Amino acid sequence: GLTATGEVAQLNLQEARVERKFTVGAWPRYLAISPDGTRLAVACSGDSKIVVADALKGEVLYEERLIGGINIGHMQCSEDGKYVYFPWMVYRSNPITVGNIQRGWVLASRIGRVRLDGPAYREAISLDVPQMAIADPHGLAMSNDGNRLVVSASGTHELLIYRRPDLPFIGAGGPGDLIDSTLLRDRDVFSRVDVGGRPMGMAISADNKTVYVANYVNDSVQKVDIESRKVIQEISLGRTPEKSLARHGMELFYDGQQSLDQWYSCHSCHYNGGVNSKAMDTMNDGSTLTMKTVLPLYHLQQTSPWTWHGWQTDLQDAMHTSFTNTMLGKGINNEEARAVMTYLNELQLPQNPFRNADGSLTEAAVRGEKIFRSEQAACASCHNGPYFTDGKIHDVGLGSAEDYYNGYNTPTLIGLYRKVRYLHDGRSKSLEDVLTGDHAPEKVSGERALSREELSDLLAYLKSL
Description:
Layout: E1 7-12, E2 17-23, E3 28-33, E4 39-44, E5 49-54, E6 59-65, E7 69-70, E8 76-77, E9 83-91, H1 98-102, E10 107-115, E11 123-126, E12 137-142, E13 148-153, E14 158-163, E15 190-194, E16 199-204, E17 210-215, E18 220-225, E19 230-236, H2 245-253, H3 266-269, E20 279-280, E21 292-293, H4 315-326, H5 334-345, H6 363-372, E22 393-394, E23 408-409, H7 431-436, H8 441-444, H9 452-464
Antiparallel strand pairs: 1-2, 3-4, 4-5, 5-6, 7-9, 8-9, 9-10, 10-11, 12-13, 13-14, 14-15, 16-17, 17-18, 18-19, 20-21, 22-23
Helix pairs in contact: 2-5, 4-5, 6-9
């Protein structure tokens, strides 16, 4: 999946070339092919949907929406080719309170399945156990006899081992907010295996007895015996990096146990330090139900002040606020706050696919930069400097009567191409919507509306940042 362009690429491995591409939707991170090779399932987290395509023709057949879905994980098709299974999280658009978190009304974890043989409403089960929830389900693997399904819960450092035929999948109207209580009565139907670190991708052995787990934090592959539910071997992938301040910060960032009853981590909303596809209500803007898009954490120390309204001017205080007010956890000390800040300061964006191979601007982007800096568009009047922000608060006519603070902090434009929702409340679903809608240059500080050619070039430049 090509996450920047929303496409799937089919590769010829023998000739090392791309045979074709086709559009599926935003952020197609993970894919699965049916056993007979005719169906392709694609997890598009940016659009909260599963796409089923004809793998031979490269054509989308149908899609199934996951309401509130974020962070769809690894996928695997059933041995009979009827279903594709996957874990994901769901954001339920409710304020962050103790009661809402514990009911599963803020963020929650699911396993879902979608039919591969024709459109049908998705089926799902809830994973979260009261007072001991599941954070950041990521990997999924199934035994070749169809009896076992294993999920890696990367935020709670564990494997979830299920007896698949006994899973109470529910379609329309379900699942419930919390785990089905019947799953808690038999350890063979559902059990949790603490493996430490950050378990990610997995594979089950051909004899269905062992799960091999790629553990990101441990820099190892772990062998877990399915019957005894124990780690029986840990295979090092090389010298483990020293426990630096940044590495400690990384562990805290991905740790769901930092939140109330371990429901979610920093990563749950700031996916790998970036964004997700939802506008969310964290109440750190002083008001309730004034939804805001999640801001990326790249170049954090260089882009003060923080939050959409720019009220936060102390980054260390912001770290404490996130762990105590947003995650409602036990909080972190000053050394841990510095560790998270150090880790975030080391985050780097991948190579921009909208630039030339050598990193230079395309011809269209060069023209677009001139428009960006011109008086006609006047984008650089606020989005200036190396990080494309003046660090000031502006009233651009997009405020709400419910907002506690007036005006909005100029956001950095670096990595803009990675977003799927724009402006503070996510009202714009594309960059073109931003530039032709409520935040069009002529409505902010530009002299006039842009022509189609100018708009196209400006978009090329913005995507290149």
